[in-house]
Every structure is written in C-alpha cells, then in structure tokens.
Amino acid sequence: MSGGKSIINGLFTGITGLVTEPIKGASQDGIGGFFLGGLKGITGLIVKPVSGVIDATSKTAEGIKNTTKVFSK
Prior knowledge:
Blueprint: H1 2-72
C-alpha cells in the first residue's frame, strides 16, 4: 500500500509545486524569480511523479524479497 502512496504523493507535490514555486521565486527575487520558480515547478511536475513510481517499485521489490524470506524458512 505504501507504494501507491508514493505515487500519489509524487503527483500531489509535483502539481502543488507548479503553483508554489513561482510564488516563492517571486517573493524572493521578483519577476526573474517568478520565471525561475516556474521552471522549477515544471521540472518538479515531471520529476516528482517519476520519483514516486521509482519509490513504489523499490518498495514492491522489497516486499517481494521479504515475502520470499518468510516462505524460505
């Protein structure tokens, strides 16, 4: 179940970053920071869900590994 949460969390943080990063950038550096924050938000929109999928895959593999240890005893 935690693998699914990783994917959902990645999507959620990627989408919210699309809004929050330009605001953070604008408050720190004005209009240039707004555009830089926008680029960070777009990058996060791509990277964070992918990271969630990788994390979910890792947790699934770990679960399979732990299951085989239980049955091999």
